Amino acid sequence: MIQVAEKPLFRILNTDEVPRMHTLESENFPSDEADSYNMLAYRQRQAPNLQLGCYINGIMIGFIGATRYNGETYNKEAMKTHIPNGGSVCIHSVVVQKEHRRKGIGLKLLQAFVKQVKEEQNNVTKILLISKPEHIPLYERAGFVLKGKSDIDLGKDTWYEFEIPLQSKY
Ligand SMILES: CC(C)(COP(=O)(O)OP(=O)(O)OC[C@H]1O[C@@H](n2cnc3c(N)ncnc32)[C@H](O)[C@@H]1OP(=O)(O)O)[C@@H](O)C(=O)NCCC(=O)NCCS
């Protein structure tokens, strides 16, 4: 019987899904870019509402992982420290499993994440991320604005910083 893929669903992921996050992270990023299990577990523990899973037929096939930080730019410290009331949401991972790519899922995941931040996170003035050159069109389509080349030294790529400015809720 042919199984028809359902539409992707998005929801905040649970503590017991960190192993699946880690599998997706290590299968979809080069080893010099992938975050460790402990780092993903830290982010899920500290900022559970900023870890958004993407599910097809009940299986997690992608996720966005983020934390909060204070500062105008995305930097190394923001990658490893969550500041609960920090004004910036920093996205660290955007992942869609290889066999599900180029079907618009990454874009929908980003749109769902931005909506979630706007609805659920207080006192946030911006969402920041860094991108490889090949993913610039994806982030532009998701509404992010290119700020320029990032200073981040991670893996072999040159990185570009993007931002969505938000009106903070007080
Ligand atoms: C980046 C990633 C999440 C994109 O997921 P995806 O589901 O394939 O993205 P989408 O299908 O929603 O892409 C939407 C649009 O973004 C652009 N885009 C996405 N991936 C692209 C690529 N590799 N090259 C060029 N444009 C791309 C295209 O404009 C695309 O529209 P199109 O397919 O109609 O041309 C996925 O490739 C991935 O997980 N990569 C490995 C991990 C990674 O590098 N993450 C990003 C860190 S910067």
Would you give an account of this structure?
The protein has 170 residues and is α+β, with helices and mostly antiparallel strands. The protein has one domain: Gcn5-related N-acetyltransferase (GNAT) (Aminopeptidase). 28% of the residues lie in helices and 28% in strands. Strands 1-2-3-4-5-7-6 form a 7-stranded mixed β-sheet, with helices on both faces. The model has no long low-confidence stretch (mean pLDDT 95). The structure holds coenzyme A. Coenzyme A binds at residues 28-29, 94-96, 101-107, 131-132, 134-135, 137-138, 141.
* Count of domains: 1
Query: DSSP helix count?
Result: 5
Bound molecules: coenzyme A
- What is the CATH C level class, in words? Alpha Beta
Low-pLDDT stretches:
none
Mean pLDDT: 95
Features:
170 residues, alpha+beta, 28% helix, binds coenzyme A, Aminopeptidase, 7 strands, 7-stranded mixed sheet, globular
